[in-house]
Design goal:
single chain, 129 residues, mainly beta, 5-stranded parallel beta sheet, LRR_dom_sf
Length: 129
Amino acid sequence: MRGPNIVVSTLCNKCLKLGLRAFNGKKMVCSAECFPKLDSLTLLGLFYLEEWKVDEGAMPTLRHLEIENCRKLKMLPDGLRFITTLRYLKIERMPMAFQDKLVEGGEDFYKVQHVPSIILPTVYLSYDP
């Protein structure tokens, strides 16, 4: 991943949780060499993140992805469709417009249609701080 606060993409992490203020950039990029052994990734409360790019070949062993309360993130990265090992995707406390893109027939469903378990909550309470 490239960004102002993260230069850890070549570490041999199996599990990575980026929580509150762990990343303060607007754009996060996972290059093709990014996290070759990563099994689980959680993005939690990355309030400034607007765009996430995943190159083909990045995170080739990722099985578990959770995104929670990253309210400015506009969409899932197109590169997720190349991560065929992904088995579990949970989207929580995200705007309904973001979630609606991921259901069958949504404009981003093609990115995650290969994921057997997709968890989207049915209730979202929106507020502007």
